[in-house]
Amino acid sequence: MAGEHVAGDYVDVLIVGAGLSGVGAACHLRRKCPGKSLAILEARGAVGGTWDLFRYPGIRSDSDMFTLGYSFRPWTRAKAIADGASIREYIGEAATEHGVAEKIRFRHKVVAAEWSSDRAMWTVTVERGAETVTMTCGFLYLCTGYYRYDQGHTPEFPGADRFAGPIVHPQHWPEDLDWTGKRVVVIGSGATAVTLVPAMTGNAEHVTMLQRSPSYVLTLGSRDPIADWARDRLPAKVAYPLVRWKNVLLATLLFQLSRRKPDLVRGLLRRDAVRRLPAGYDVDTHFRPAYDPWDQRLCFVPDGDLFRAVRTGQASVVTDTIKTFTETGIALDSGDHLPADVIVTATGLELLMVGGITLTVDGDEIDPADTVAYKGMMFSGVPNLVMTMGYTNASWTLKADLVAHYVCRLLDHMAEHGLDQCTPQAPDPTLPREPFLDLTSGYIQRASHRLPKQGPTTPWRLHQNYPRDIALLRHGPLDDGVLFSRAGSAQAGSAR
User: Fold this and answer.
1) Cα(223)–Cα(363) distance, rounded to whole angstroms?
2) At residue 485, does pLDDT exceed 90?
3) Contacts with 367 (C-beta within 8 Å, 6 or more apart), sequence order
4) How many angstroms separate the Cα of 426 from the Cα of each of 63, 386, 423?
5) 379: β partners
6) Is the pLDDT assigned to residue 432 strictly greater than 90?
7) Can you list the pairs that 401-405 forms with residues at least 24 positions away whose Cβ atoms lie under 8 Å?
8) pLDDT per residue over 154-202, tens digit each?
9) Looking at the predicted structure, is the pLDDT value of residue 327 above 60?
10) Where would I find the H helices in 179-300?
């Protein structure tokens, strides 16, 4: 019967989401906690998450695959910046190799989860097609990503209903869209826009990137010469960690340098843009943001393809604001008019915490915005729940791998000590609270009021620092006086 618990439909760990994080989490559990039963619930009909949903032209990783790939499964292909189809295939291969594929239940959308301290158990409400079913689990592991899958962010553009051609958001790219010989305007300046523009130039008459303000753009090689060298001369078990750590350290250096010497990094990025663009190009208008490097994510372009498209005249960048859409294009506040046959609104994501799942603890509904994040992955006052949130300044999977490793340690610790509950106890309310993510990107600022907070010090601080998180999550103490309180309450961690 709909909504009725099915006897035996209990797992020790219930993972929500079969994307890069969810499949990786399940692989870690199968390798390190083989005695734990698990299931993965996926709202969509395929493995891959982001890499299955996004099908726009040129979709690719925005990090190198030696760090975006799993720690336990070396990335062996030649390209360091991989296309979406290759990443989707890589995730599927990992799921099959580790016996995870058969644990996935597709078209299962989790809408609510209720925790009972008396039972030390989550009851999870799931929409499965037209029916509603429930599952129970001892530990809930959310790998839902951080944005809405059913819709992206599209501002209200005046006159949009007047435009005669198609208006497309990259999150829902039509398979039959044909832009051959057409004039395309891509609205936006983030990672999606800088990917789309060079990818569409091959067939389009011309592609224009229309941006309200510029982003920092950094060229990366689509191949890593050190990785090529190591792959040819060293065993895979040596080459992969070597290249992975090389890239981790370079990314960490760039981020720290950006925060400590922003003028230096700004100058380096500007000089690179000047070198790659036509002589006399107005770099300061179109490629010099008002904010400091890494106040928002840097946009990486493989082999400088965006700059090349501009240099050859196949694409152009316009920095202006939109007055109104017209029948034939976009009228700008400057008085100019951009002719267009196709408009792409690469205007960002809609942030969505915990996949939109309603969380309830002992009858009280939990608003993540009222909690403080513990080690960047748990919520104060919420038992036996972990959420994977990857890095914003490095590859997502680096953090996802560490979170999975931590969960395995935590489950083993609880089993060893006869504990069935762990709950981060909220820090002193007099301590200052800060936003969970400190980037100034529009999609984060629009949703900052819905995010948990962070505190001033560990374990309430989100460091965005991989080497530091290794010490904290791989080697730091589990029983730190926060996760397993000495108060003896059921919420703090009771023995079976």
Assistant:
1) 53
2) no
3) none
4) 34, 15, 9
5) 373
6) no
7) 401/24, 401/28, 401/70, 401/71, 402/466, 402/469, 402/470, 402/473, 402/474, 403/25, 403/377, 403/473, 404/24, 404/25, 404/27, 404/28, 404/29, 405/28, 405/32, 405/473, 405/474
8) 889 999 999 999 999 999 999 999 999 999 999 999 999 999 999 999 8
9) yes
10) 191-200, 225-233, 236-260, 262-276, 283-286
Q: How far apart are CA 84 and CA 228, in angstroms?
A: 21
Q: How far is CA 480 from CA 229, 452, 475, in A?
A: 43, 21, 12
Instruction: Decide: residue 223, CB within 10 A, 0-12 exposed, 13-18 middle, 19+ buried.
Output: middle
DSSP for 424-489 reads PPPPPTTS--EES-----HHHHHHGGGSPEE-SSTTS-----HHHHIIIIISS-S--SSSS-TT--
3-state secondary structure of 176: coil
Distance CA 125, CA 365 (A): 14
> Which residues make Cβ contacts (< 8 Å) with residue 378, sequence separation at least 6?
385, 386, 387, 424, 483
Answer whether residue 470 shows pLDDT above 50: yes
Nearest Cα neighbor of 119 from 377, 384, 378 is 384
How far, in Å, CA of 185 to CA of 182, rounded? 10
Which tokens in the block code for residue 492? Answer: 């703090």
**Selection from 115, 95, 125 nearest residue 29 by Cα:** 95
Q: Please enumerate in sequence order all residues whose Cβ is within 8 A of that of 370, keeping only pairs 6 or more positions apart, or say none.
A: none
Measured from the Cβ of residue 381, the count of other Cβ atoms closer than 10 Å reads: 17
Burial of 257 (0-12, 13-18, 19+ CB in 10 A): middle
Indicate the SS3 state at residue 237: helix
φ and ψ at residue 230, rounded to 5 degrees: -65, -40
- Ordered by start, the domain boundaries in the chain are 5-149+350-493, 169-345
Residue with tokens 């922003």: 262
CA distances from 10 to 41, 124, 138, 384 (A): 13, 10, 8, 15
**Mean pLDDT in residue range 403-408:** 98
- What local confidence, expressed as pLDDT, does residue 371 receive? 94
Sheet of 167-168, strand order: 167-168, 342-345, 183-187, 206-211, 315-319
Pick the CATH number of 5-149+350-493 from 3.50.50.60, 3.40.30.10, 3.40.1190.20, 3.40.50.970: 3.50.50.60
Chain-centre distance of CA 43, in angstroms?
17
- Report the DSSP beta bridge partners of residue 92: none
Amino acid 147: pLDDT: 84
d(CA 259, CA 247) in angstroms, rounded, equals 18
What CA dihedral angle connects 157, 162, 164 and 169, to 10 degrees? 20
**Which residue reads 């999606």 in tokens?**
192
